[in-house]
Design a protein that fits this description.
- It is built from eleven helices and 20 strands.
- By secondary structure, it is an alpha+beta fold.
- Strands 12, 13, 14, 15, 16, 17, 18, 19 and 20 form a nine-stranded antiparallel beta sheet that branches. A four-stranded antiparallel beta sheet has the order 2-3-4-9, with no helix packed on it. A four-stranded antiparallel beta sheet has the order 5-6-7-8, with no helix packed on it.
- Strand 7 and strand 8 form a beta hairpin.
- Helix 4 packs across helix 8.
- It is globular and about 85 Å long.
């Protein structure tokens, strides 16, 4: 478990906090590209790492992410007019370009040069992989855009969704790297969810050994979180999750199903955005797969129309069905992988009190991830650059393999974990 000081350090991500400064050194997803569908479309409010920002797309198709509040009297520029290559405040007409530079103050003579003295805080906003990314750290430290495999495959090979989760990013992320809970929380859902159900061999191994042995190891960008299960046939079934700092995960594949993944981005200290991805490196996703994901199956969630809040949420007890729980149609009574996870994670409260935990061997991956985050944040405060910011760190993949006893997964699965472009994923 963490002590109170460590728990405070690892969960707080506002400006000038150690973890907030660490997060600001990575490119983070903040919007789906479809949220800014065309030049001069309506702006979109963005709250990330406790900062209130506004995203917009100008007449020249340039993307901007600027302070939400006008420098004049603090009006929200969400009410502004997106026109003629800038965003104009509706209160007194002050206008800003995509960099946050004020370009017009109608009440002041142009010759005074007053507008040139006004500039809002702004961050770069860039498209890649159906997502809009931002970098909020020192400009001189800005790395190239990330190259996560799901973001680099053709559009037809990928699906990305976004939802709001009502808890601190860390407890959401920790659920994503905890492979042992699958044998319980998701055990009935695996057999009928269309994004999982055809992988009968992996399900048999998962449900046949509910006490996996965890062997996490540090990787250049984060951790390999390997869970080993007995196959009952003299071999071991290994599921190797990739965790990439600060909060990206790649879930080991099952059969020929698409690889799943997540990224959790703090909105503030008590809520986060959950980006969920499915991609297949060697084929397009089928219409059936896309339809299932858009219905909220697989690792995705059905959303209240016009919002990113799930239909099943804490206000309606996640539509829990006690009858389904009794009858074995849902282990927890909550439907769907995404909301099964979210309901458990949100039940801990906005920020989990980790001083009360009693951890066991299957929590080793979580323990190492916490320690790696804390160490990186403290090192950054001493001037040590964080790991996993460069694109070469992202060219990795999760894997599922069967190996004989005595074989080290880091060696046997090296090619699967660090694949050549275009190769098939290693799966069971």
């Amino acid at each position: 478990m963490l002590n109170a000081v460590e728990n405070e350090l690892v969960t707080r991500t506002g400006r000038e906090t150690p973890m907030g400064e660490l997060f600001r050194r990575y490119w983070l997803p903040v919007l789906l590209a479809t949220e800014l569908p065309a030049p001069d479309c309506p702006p979109v409010r963005v709250k990330i790492l406790s900062e209130r920002l506004l995203a917009f797309r100008d007449s020249q198709d340039r993307l901007g992410l600027i302070d939400e509040l006008c420098a004049h009297r603090g009006v929200s520029l969400w009410f502004g007019r997106n026109e003629q290559s800038g965003l104009r405040c509706p209160y007194h007409g002050w206008k800003y370009d995509h960099t946050g530079q004020c370009v017009d103050v109608p009440s002041e003579p142009v010759a005074s040069g007053y507008a040139a003295k006004i500039r809002l805080k702004s961050y770069p906003l860039a498209r890649r992989g159906g997502v809009l990314w931002t970098y909020m750290g020192p400009p001189e430290k800005q790395p190239p855009l990330p190259e996560h495999e799901w973001a680099m495959v053709p559009d037809a090979h990928r699906l990305v969704s976004k939802r709001i989760q009502e808890c601190n990013y860390l407890q959401a992320m920790e659920g994503g790297i905890d492979s042992s809970h699958v044998s319980f929380l998701h055990r009935f859902t695996m057999s009928h969810d269309p994004m999982f159900r055809h992988a009968t061999q992996s399900h048999r191994y998962n449900l046949g050994d509910t006490a996996p042995v965890f062997e996490p190891a540090e990787s250049p960008a984060g951790l390999y979180i390997a869970a080993r299960r007995n196959t009952g046939e003299g071999h071991y079934y290994w599921r190797i999750t990739q965790w990439l700092m600060p909060t990206f995960t790649l879930i080991p594949p099952r059969g020929d199903h698409a690889i799943g993944g997540h990224c959790w981005v703090p909105i503030d200290d008590e809520r986060c955005l959950t980006f969920s991805t499915n991609h297949h490196n060697t084929r397009a996703l089928t219409p059936e797969e896309r339809a299932a994901c858009e219905r909220g199956e697989g690792i995705h969630a059905a959303l209240i129309p016009g919002t990113f809040r799930p239909v099943a949420n804490k206000d309606n007890d996640y539509l829990m069905d006690r009858q389904a729980q009794r009858e074995g149609r849902s282990y927890s009574g909550v439907a769907g992988f995404a909301m099964q996870d979210a309901s458990i994670q949100e039940s801990m409260g906005p920020i989990q009190d980790r001083t009360r935990e009693n951890l066991v061997g299957t929590d080793n991956g979580i323990i190492m991830a916490r320690n790696r985050l804390i160490r990186a944040a403290r090192d950054l405060a001493k001037g040590v650059e964080p790991p996993g910011v460069q694109p070469e760190s992202h060219r990795v993949r999760s894997a599922a393999v069967v190996l004989p006893p005595g074989v080290q997964y880091q060696d046997a699965a090296r090619a699967a974990l660090h694949p050549l472009p275009g190769t098939a994923h290693a799966t069971v």
